[in-house]
Amino acid sequence: GTVDKHSVEVTNCFSVPHNESEDEVAVDMEFAKNMYELHKKVSPNELILGWYATGHDITEHSVLIHEYYSREAPNPIPLTVDTSLQNGRMSIKAYVSTLMGVPGRTMGVMFTPLTVKYAYYDTERIGVDLIMKTCFSPNRVIGLSSDLQQVGGASARIQDALSTVLQYAEDVLSGKVSADNTV
């Protein structure tokens, strides 16, 4: 990804094989190095900004993985991607780490949550929406929509949005709610 003043943009990622046991994590560092070298050939301006793991929170193993990436990037940003789709969403959380402890003694790491904003191209959104539909399909399979079905769906969403705007305007005119320019 890239860093610009006070924001970080994550644009790509690749998975790195690892094995976890109860008290240790083995990351395939050679694989990670090779993948990054290949990635730099395609996107030479992008840097390693951090790492990601599936799950809804930072774990004890996160500290060990973070230690490795601290050698690869200054102040790496860990992301957690909750693939369980709780509440019908794939939650992504980002953190910044801070060393803590008594000087000269064993140090610990504290992870503080960051604000995450999603940005995507329309074509990416279409793909994600299609994948999300499979979550609610009984057999986890869903077909692609025809052009006519897509136009019909878009028309229905526009009609719903217009109905919401019309209802708001009627509520303002009748005095049920006060006008709000931010709406």
UniProtKB/TrEMBL annotation:
Species in which this protein is naturally found: Mustela putorius furo (European domestic ferret)
General function of this protein: Deubiquitinates activated NOTCH1, promoting its nuclear import, thereby acting as a positive regulator of Notch signaling.
Entries under Pfam families matching the protein: JAB (PF01398), MitMem_reg (PF13012)
CDD domains assigned: MPN_eIF3f
Signal peptide boundaries: none
InterPro entries hit by this protein: eIF3f, EIF3F/CSN6-like_C, JAMM/MPN+_dom, MPN
Name of this protein: Deubiquitinating enzyme eIF3f
Any one GO MF annotation of this record: translation initiation factor binding
Keyword Chloroplast attributed: no
GO cellular component term, pick one: eukaryotic translation initiation factor 3 complex, eIF3m
Gene3D superfamilies: Cytidine Deaminase, domain 2
Matching PANTHER family: EUKARYOTIC TRANSLATION INITIATION FACTOR 3 SUBUNIT F, EUKARYOTIC TRANSLATION INITIATION FACTOR 3 SUBUNIT F-RELATED
Domain MPN: 1-101
Keywords, comma-separated and alphabetical: Cytoplasm, Initiation factor, Protein biosynthesis
